[in-house]
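Q: Could you write out the predicted structure for this multi-component system? I'm mainly interested in how the pieces pack against one another.
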Amino acid sequence: MKHIETIGLFGFGVVGEGLFQLLKNNKIMNTEIKKICIKQRSKQRSVSQHLLTYNANDILDDEKISLVVELIDDDQSAYDIVKHALLNGKSVVSGNKKMLAKHLEEFIQLQQIHSSALLYDASACGSVPVVRNLEEYYDNDLLKSITGILNGSSNYILSQIFSKGENYHSALKAAQALGYAESDPSSDVEGLDALYKLVIITCHGFGAYVPPDSVFCYGISQIKNFDIQFAKEKNLKIKLIARVEKVNNDHFTMFVMPKLVQPDEYIYNVEDENNGVIIEGECYDKQLMFGKGAGAFPTASSVLSDITARNYNYKYEYKKRNYFKKMSYSINTELEIYLRYDNLSDYNHFEFESIFEKYFGKGFNYVIGSIKLNNLLKIQKVIKKLDVFLAFTGN
Amino acid sequence: MKHIETIGLFGFGVVGEGLFQLLKNNKIMNTEIKKICIKQRSKQRSVSQHLLTYNANDILDDEKISLVVELIDDDQSAYDIVKHALLNGKSVVSGNKKMLAKHLEEFIQLQQIHSSALLYDASACGSVPVVRNLEEYYDNDLLKSITGILNGSSNYILSQIFSKGENYHSALKAAQALGYAESDPSSDVEGLDALYKLVIITCHGFGAYVPPDSVFCYGISQIKNFDIQFAKEKNLKIKLIARVEKVNNDHFTMFVMPKLVQPDEYIYNVEDENNGVIIEGECYDKQLMFGKGAGAFPTASSVLSDITARNYNYKYEYKKRNYFKKMSYSINTELEIYLRYDNLSDYNHFEFESIFEKYFGKGFNYVIGSIKLNNLLKIQKVIKKLDVFLAFTGN
């Protein structure tokens, strides 16, 4: 049955304001925003002053407020807010992927102990309901893998490169000019944003929490024209993917890496700032969920779906974690990768298990071969200082 | 919390047997099939005899059986089974779209009165979780339209036509040879199968039940080479779509019809026997859900998801129907269509509001114009006897 939620909102940036407008224009919703906590006193706000506060406790300690919606940037402050709210037995809706990816294990326990609920579908793939579907629909052990284009900025950059013939730096500038990439784009282009989302998705897809810093994560900033040319000649595209995959009945593996994508793969047509997630299972082959992964209103609509779910007391049961056989994260797996390198000294950091293809050319060389994920993890920090580019070539 | 379901299964065709295998191989599932009711005594079955019965009441009147899974072909018998089960307070999982589309209104009431639950995600789009997502995730009034390729057989035929240069009749034969179309393909190619699914989807997307026979439904069997050539010359494809669309805050409209599809539309790349559903909303623009719409295992996996949902007492709340402003079905809307005709006497059945484009040629003529949906509905039966082809040209 439906009940009314009284909301305390943290943050009034693009998503927070988008949500406020949405709630105002949808009068039938059983929700009411009682207070909005903001940080900057100087900014002009489009809401009446009596709704605003600068003191978090005005929300966190208000017993009338049943639901905290956390939409701020700073992950440390967000952590404090969410933890305090859960400890006080309040429900929380959050879209802060970095904070969630770091603290999910603790939050799962806090929810159990304090009978509170934390929903965060907006944190992974914006408007595309990936978390909820993994939790509710794919809730049996048929799941084989989840592969996603989870970061709109890097996908926009790669789309520009492959459709407009741009190079990496001009495409990045175009993305920044349009607001698709931050002035410091590192979290997007180095794969961290996708990694945080992958950690959240894995928790609901395979029932295990894996800390972000134990996952191999490699972005697109080292891509060069040779890599682009290599892909184009073979009618391939390069996409930054995040992937978690069942290895056997006891283990799964995961990584974030660019991928050489064939035209017949579903993600081949996921272009621009869009997100796409492929869910592969024993019976249903592959399914694609596709849509806007970011932006004020797509994200706000996802937050709204979590809020209305709380109207019906919905909470994640963490079914895979609680009711299925426990699976462990394994890095003792082999990946097929493309490695472009200029100097043999760079190449020598990589311990390939086997090599399928080699090319030596004027200033550029590449190999395609099989390498252990734990080898890549071991040299993760070194790789970023080398003049190389890596891409997954598996399926 | 999870509890055990004791299942009575009706039907042991490809889906029923697929489900049986799935449950057998997934031992952690809290489910047990106690009885399987079948019709044909002569067939060899891959299960031990003590599980089988030919008497429906062995399941329906067994108090130990908490969940009836109905996977038979005959919609009248399916109706009797589902009704009897719901009256007895049992939960039911069904994939019978024809039966559901005809009797959903009654079943919704029966569920309320007898506190029983009926789940049927397998009935619309096989493995793609459309019903559950519309019910649970898009549960606010931001939804603008749902447009789907809901029938795999007709989509396979149209894909063959556009990718292999086949004509309608050779493509139909190929589909039949591969088992993608029945020996009597009329339900698929005339749009009825898509219509039944649309009725179900509309109930969860817009909260209203519309009987199938009050919806304009037109299939692909009248397509001719001229129509194919017309589309190809403009770099378009023809896809059979089912669509429900919000007209204003009080009304929605719906139909099943072929559509001329532009290359930049998401469904342009939904090929072969696949299904794809585009969910359009105020905030999130358009989202695509894509996957296998039919087949033994994809359908069985969807049935399985409904069964495991019952392990957690999940039932549809029919949220749009119960908690949102009631919307009414309207046929007083205008559609932009392409109409190919050979004879003026055929053309004269159509009362266009306005004409945007006209072509007179050797043996073939067409117009593109705007027509009222109630005009099309009025002449629905006549159209099938004319030498014409219709396709939606709107967005």
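A: Regarding packing and overall arrangement: Residues 128 and 291 of chain B are 6 Å apart (CA to CA).
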